[in-house]
Model the fold of this input.
Amino acid sequence: MGALEVTDNVLPYISGEEEKIERETAKIFGSVSPGGGRLEPDGLNVRAACHRVAVIDGHTESVHVTLKRAADAGEAKRAMRSFSGLPQKLGLHLAPERPVIVRDEPDRPQPRLDRDAGNGMSVTVGRLRRGLTDNSLLFDVVGHNLVRGAAGASVLDAELLVRTGKLDELRESRPA
Done:
């Protein structure tokens, strides 16, 4: 796609991206079947709309999530701010101290201002508020598509596999 197509424009469709987000999200929240090592996608109901915008780096998402119970924006902010995963607990080299940064300003997150949070390995959430129903939330997210995207996530995953000994397990489970 040429730069002139995007300059001063928003392209409302990117071939294959919406389907990829829907499919990959189900994989991320899926599980590995016992014994077979086969990935079983989660049955999440995900719908995506992708737009091409003239931004150097960073993906911005507007998220509407429906929960099983009533959702309180303050509670959601506290949960996101306090989130820490195994990479943080293990102090892995690429793991950001805070994987999710929550901003309270009404005009954040923005790719130019927030994509490099946590050396590009954190995501920034903002505009978190109640959705259309009592059990839904709306929020915006910015992440660095090159640093936190496939490359950074893959290296962090490799660090995690090595540190937890899972890489050796994977090697041992493969047929010779």
User: Anything to note?
Assistant: Helices lie at 3-6, 17-28, 73-82, 86-89, 111-114, 150-164, 166-173.
